[in-house]
Amino acid sequence: MYYDLPADQLAAYRGSTSAPEDLDRFWADTLDEARQHPLAVGVTPYPSGLRTVEVYDVVFPGFGGEPIQAWLRLPARSVRGDGQLPGVVQFVGYGGGRGDARESLFWASAGFAHLQMDTRGQGAGWSTGATPDASGSAGPQVPGVMTRGVLDPQTYYYRRLITDAVRAVEAMRSLAGSGAAPVDPARVAVLGQSQGGGLALAAASLCPEVAAVVALVPFLSDFPRALTVTDGYPYREIVDFLSMQRGAANRVMETLRYFDAVNLVPRATAPALFSVGLMDTTTPPSTVYAAYNNYAGPKELSVWPFNQHEAGGIEDEVLALAFLQKQFA
User: Fold this and answer.
1) Is 249 helix (H, G, I), strand (E, B) or coil?
2) How far apart are CA 245 and CA 249, in angstroms?
3) Around Cβ 211, how many Cβ atoms within 10 Å?
């Protein structure tokens, strides 16, 4: 059912949050700290048994220099030839990890170098993961990661995960000069769905080298509205937390301002493709429109009137492929 704003109001909606004055300094300091750790990327061939796709087990330093795992999938040399490939860095939806080496073959099969980043502290929901949240802070939280360290921007979980995402882009671009993979550093896109879409928007906002963005039903946008218009998880985790930590609301909402896509995307300039499902109770349509309407670069939006969080499904994937092929032609 439709529960959010009418269509004409969605088209103009820009969100209910504002950026903290020190947002740029916060992220510059965070990323400078991460970059003190050398970008040593380990790339190890993985015996997948596949003939048309090569798979590599990758590890790179993320937040705090902590090792973050990923899969790198390439078209087999017999398929790709000797030229450089466009690259896509994919981030995973909430609760999932990088999965099995033989999953997610779409982008390599389409001729891209595909780096799929593991998600620290997740990977026990709907796909497997292998990267711990080693810097996870102590303190009260409800099950899940939405409230982990949420009382302070410095300790919040998404400070670490967004930093990992930026470092994943840097790791992918670095492979071109290492001989480890035939990646064109000028043609590296970020993409994801739900949490992955939110991470793609954050990475594009903080890493100007990103060449294109695909953000399908992006999560982590317009927190103040999301918490009051949907009863769905994962946003509900924050509501559950505040229902018990009654005096913490101001501190929590202040923390979330540093990670809200609405506040980050005015810094993003790469061409972007968004999607939204108008019956989505996981990422309410208004929260997606808020990110879209504040996004500073060229942008397109696929609207699916009768869909929930699955949005366009495979049709979104097909549109994303056409979009990136056009950008990287």
Assistant:
1) helix
2) 8
3) 22
Q: How many helices and strands (H and E) does the chain possess?
A: 12, 9
Instruction: Give the alpha-carbon dihedral of 57, 62, 64, 65, to 10 degrees.
Output: 40
Whether residue 165 contacts residue 196, with contact meaning beta carbons closer than 8 Å, is answered with no
**Polymer length of the chain:** 329
DSSP annotation of 220 reads: S
Catalytic positions, written as ranges:
194, 280, 309
pLDDT value, residue 134: 85
Residue 141: per-residue pLDDT = 84
- As a whole number of angstroms, the distance between CA 215 and CA 192 comes to 6
The two three-digit tokens of residue 263, written as one number: 């506040």
Residue type, 257: R
Q: Are strands 85-91 and 113-117 parallel, antiparallel or unpaired?
A: parallel
Q: Identify the helix (H) or strand (E) that includes residue 68.
A: strand 67-75
Q: What is the DSSP letter of 167?
A: H
Q: What is the mean pLDDT of each run of 10 residues along the chain (329 residues)?
A: 93 97 98 97 96 96 97 91 91 96 96 97 89 79 92 97 98 84 94 98 98 98 97 97 97 98 98 98 98 98 98 98 97
In eight-state DSSP terms, residue 246 is G
> How far is Cα 18 from Cα 224, in angstroms, rounded to an integer?
10
Query: What is the predicted pLDDT for the residue at 137?
Result: 67
pTM of the model as a whole:
0.97
Q: At 57, which helix (H) or strand (E)?
A: strand 53-61
| Whole-number pLDDT of residue 83 | 83
Residue 161 has what pLDDT? 98
What stretch of H or E contains 307?
none
Longest dimension (CA), the chain: 61
Encoded tokens for 237 = 């985790």
Structure tokens given for 216: 């399908």
- Separation between Cα atoms, residue 144 and residue 35, nearest integer Å: 28
Task: Name 59's Cβ contacts closer than 8 Å, sequence gap at least 6.
Answer: 41, 42, 67, 68, 69, 70
Angle, vertex CA 26, rays to CA 15 and CA 138, nearest 5: 95
